[in-house]
Amino acid sequence: MAPLTPDHTAMTTTALALTTALAGGGLIGLAAALLLGLNGRIFGVSGIAAAAIDPETPDRGWRWALLAGMVSGGALLAWLAPERLQLQPAQPLWLYLASGLAVGYGARLGAGCPSGHGICGLSRLSLRSAVATAVFMATSMGTVAVMKRLGGQP
Amino acid sequence: MNRTHLAAFLAGLLFALGLGLSGMTQPAVVLGFLDVGGDWNPALMAVMAGAIGVNLPACQWLLRLPRPLWSARFHLPPHGGLDRELVAGSALFGIGWGLSGYCPGTGIVAVSGGGLPAIAFTLSMVAGFWLFKRRQVALFHRVTVEDVP
């Protein structure tokens, strides 16, 4: 997880970044396989987090354990590779608030997010997940294009 | 604490490290992928390829087993048809994702960095969960009231 050194040529930097991205993806796939093989559960972050905070959920324990694992992994990253958790450039705070609200409500209404639909759902060859992934990829790309046109930060 | 809690904790930990290693906890990398008209960054595609490359064969093999190792059965969402909620929800999700570059996974992991953006995003996402729950409860009540003569 060492920061990429700037003395690489652009080509090697890209190749290295893509290799670490591929390896990181492999870890994510392994995490999802572990949860399915041991606990029989789908690794969908939005569904797990929403159920964890809902007092009506019968078994919240493993969900909180998973969230604790994620936050612990984040703490490890903050310690070993803090640049991975930093923002450049920062955007106005209201944008993060608006983003969170749309992401939270949208993920629940659409029954999933990139982890549940994009990784687990596609791996189960689910048509619903394939459609959901195509739709949120399209609207997110459209949003970035509109924000650029409006002179926004992204 | 039991072994399923330990498995969930380890899965969450691995997931967070995978997101960090792949660069996805940096919103700029995600936005660089979504910015198809600009200086395109293909990293997110490599993450998806790595994750599905491992998880697809694992899933196909595991789901043929009679049950998972530490649970009586697999808890899977049904392979249902398409509906308006799936499409509308995913569309709204994508708009939110494109605004910041954070999704639920990266937002929660990035909270540990202590940055205000990740904390604001995650709290607001929880508010979104809560609003959705309120809508579900309201819909449920309407249906039951209408069903009673």
Short description:
The complex is a heterodimer of chains A (154) and B (149). With 154 residues, chain A is mainly alpha-helical.
Write structural notes for this entry.
The complex is a heterodimer of chains A (154) and B (149). Helix content of chain A is 70%, strand content 0%. Chain A has 154 residues and is mainly α. In chain A, helix 2 packs across helix 3. Chain A is globular, with a radius of gyration of 18 Å. With 149 residues, chain B is mostly helical. Helix content of chain B is 70%, strand content 0%. Classes of the chains: A mainly alpha (154), B mainly alpha (149). Chains A and B meet through helix 1, helix 2, helix 3, helix 4 and helix 5 of A and helix 1, helix 2, helix 3, helix 4 and helix 5 of B.
Number of strands of chain B: 0
Largest interface: A-B, 110 and 113 residues
Question: Mean pLDDT of chain B, as a whole number?
Answer: 94
Q: List the secondary-structure elements of chain B in sequence, H or E.
A: HHHHHH
Radius of gyration of CA atoms of chain A, rounded to a whole number: 18 Å
* Principal-axes shape call of chain A: globular
Inertia-based shape of chain B: globular
Distance between the termini of chain A: 25 Å
Q: Output the helix-strand order of chain A.
A: HHHHHH
According to DSSP, the number of beta strands of chain A is 0
Radius of gyration of CA atoms of chain B, rounded to a whole number: 19 Å
Mean pLDDT of chain A: 91
- Structural class given helices, strands, pairing of chain A? mainly alpha
Tell me the number of helical segments of chain B per DSSP (H or I, 4 or more residues long). Answer: 6
Instruction: Quote the distance from N terminus to C terminus of chain B.
Output: 47 Å
Q: What oligomeric assembly is this protein in?
A: heterodimer
Tell me what portion of residues of chain A adopts beta-strand conformation.
under 5%
